[in-house]
Amino acid sequence: MHLNGADPMIPSPPGFTCDEETFRVIEVTVMTLAVSGGATIIAGLIGIPLGIYLGMKRGRLFLVIMTLTHTFYGMPPVLAGLLFYLLLSRNGPLGSLGLIFTPAAMILVQVFLVTPIVIGLTASAVGSVEKSVLDTAITLGARGRTLLKTMAKEARTGILSAVMIAFGSAISEVGAVILVGGNIKWRTQVLTTAILIETEKGNIEYAVTLGCILLLLSVVTYSILTYIQARETGMKIRLRRKGSKPGRKRG
Amino acid sequence: MDENTHPRRSLSIHGKRGIRVAIPVAMVAGLLITVYLVNTSFSGERKELLIVTTTSVRDSGVFDYLLEDFTGKTGINVFYIPAGSGQALEYGKRGDADGLLVHAPEDEARFVRDGYGTKRYPFMYNGFALVGPPEDPAGVSRAGSPAEALGNIRENRSVFVTRGDESGTHLKEKRLWEKAGFNYTRDINTRDNQWYLNASSGMGNTLLIADEMYGYTLCDEATYYSYASRLHIIILLKDHPDLINQYSIIPVNPAIHPHVKYQLTMELVCYLISEEGQDRISAYEVNGHKLFTPNASERC
Fold it and tell me: CA of A64 to nearest chain B CA: how many angstroms apart?
């Protein structure tokens, strides 16, 4: 089949040829990474500062907002999808933006879904930093951005975990992106929705291939997460010891 | 010597430099991709069309086959959303697509009458078929009409798998039950009727479920033939006037939704009903079976 129907977003490099199946696998994977990665970054930019701020608050406001955040953890993605479909549909309040069935709409809905995860996990990570650290920082005159930076540094493992978990749940999400993205071949298809449709079409082998890639992405994401967490706890010592051997400079 | 040359201190700084550079670089790269994607999302000026098609058209591969030729000739890229006819008409009403390719004649007529679409262009048909296990416990193949066959299935309490998704096929099935003298919601689609299974999914999936359950289902011939190699169930009844499956394309009305690409949609419509497009439709075969018969009644 022709490839000029292929998405102009992902130009195939000159001289690079492969059969359509392979090209589609690459295209769908790149789209998945771009949509979920983009959503995770935006969620991080919003959620980390908010989470740190909330994490430093101890009191009623903290409890109220954390309860809200935790409620949004449980937001069924497909409901979020429906909500954003109605919002972005041409008849909806934001319809004039023309975003429905585009990657931008998919990023939006995923930002909505994973930002609470980033906020919640960041807040609990910051909340678990010893209170004396916070007090010391304040006593030493840290305010505003400096205080935010200090706390981010103290809780960096927790924050990184928050981002990784957000990314992990974004790439494996299906209900929301299929409703606002429409699962359009060459345009808004991501790994999960492609698996759904290929299974429905009976292309089981192809669906399994896509599934393996998705699983691989999850494994890589969570391996990095585990490594980061391990470094902060007991295994840090072991890694350092290895690192101090001759020939390895990095600790 | 300043404190930076202290061995432990310099080691830890050295170790972190990688991360300090990598995180902003990754973020900037990610954001650039995101911005690019968002930017390309606004496709207003490009020669691109968004058509909602029924799942059966997608599953049979005919739309890909026609678009290959159309895009080659006109340079118009057509993207399509596979959806049941009910969903397709809803998308059309809301203006979320430029055109609809559907097979639910009564609903299409209402859609156009209500002003959501400019005109209905019928351009091809294929047949529905009743498929089921080769043993045929309900005697569908001996029935004189689809309505009679459905009556036998109900009588026999044989498993029947329905699409259940308000698609054109589902609507057709409902009409056949009515024709057989049953009230669909009262006599057929009830919780007590355990023989009547609601798959709530596309044609391909429904066929696979019917196959697993050794049940009957109503299927368009095109999808059946594309799946035939992995199915045990066979076609038991076809080629009956009640089983005609008419496909039409409807441009969404630009008077209601000014943003739709009416001109480009009309190019696709004109291609589909042109002699050339019609010839191409009749030439399409899957596993040696002709799947669709072109029947456009007018030209542009």
Answer: 31
- A residues 158..217 contacting B (CB < 8 A): 182-187, 197, 199-202
Quick one: CA torsion of A198, A203, A209, A215, rounded to 10 degrees? Answer: 40
CB-CB: which of A2, A199, A202 is closest to B227? A202
Superfamily of domain B48-125+244-294: Periplasmic binding protein-like II (3.40.190.10)
Task: Name the minimum distance, in Å, from the CA of A59 to any CA of chain B.
Answer: 33
Residue B216: strand, helix, or coil: strand
How far is the C-alpha of A107 from the C-alpha of A112, rounded, in Å?
A: 9
Rounded distance, CA A207 to CA A225, Å?
A: 27
Q: Which residue has the higher pLDDT, B241 or B3?
A: B241
Q: What integer pLDDT is reported at residue A4 of this predicted model?
A: 39
Please check whether the domain covering B128-243 is classified as CATH 3.40.190.10: yes
pTM of the model: 0.77
| Residues above pLDDT 70, as percent of chain B | 90
- ipTM of the modeled complex: 0.70
Show residues of chain A in contact with B268, CB under 8 Å: none
Nearest of A249, A112, A61, A196 to residue B13 by alpha carbon:
A249
Enumerate the domain spans of chain B: 48-125+244-294, 128-243
User: B13 — contact with chain A (CB < 8 Å)?
Assistant: no
Q: Which fold has domain A20-214?
A: MetI-like fold (1.10.3720)
Is it the case that residue A199 has pLDDT exceeding 60?
yes
**A41–B71: do the CB atoms touch at under 8 Å?**
no
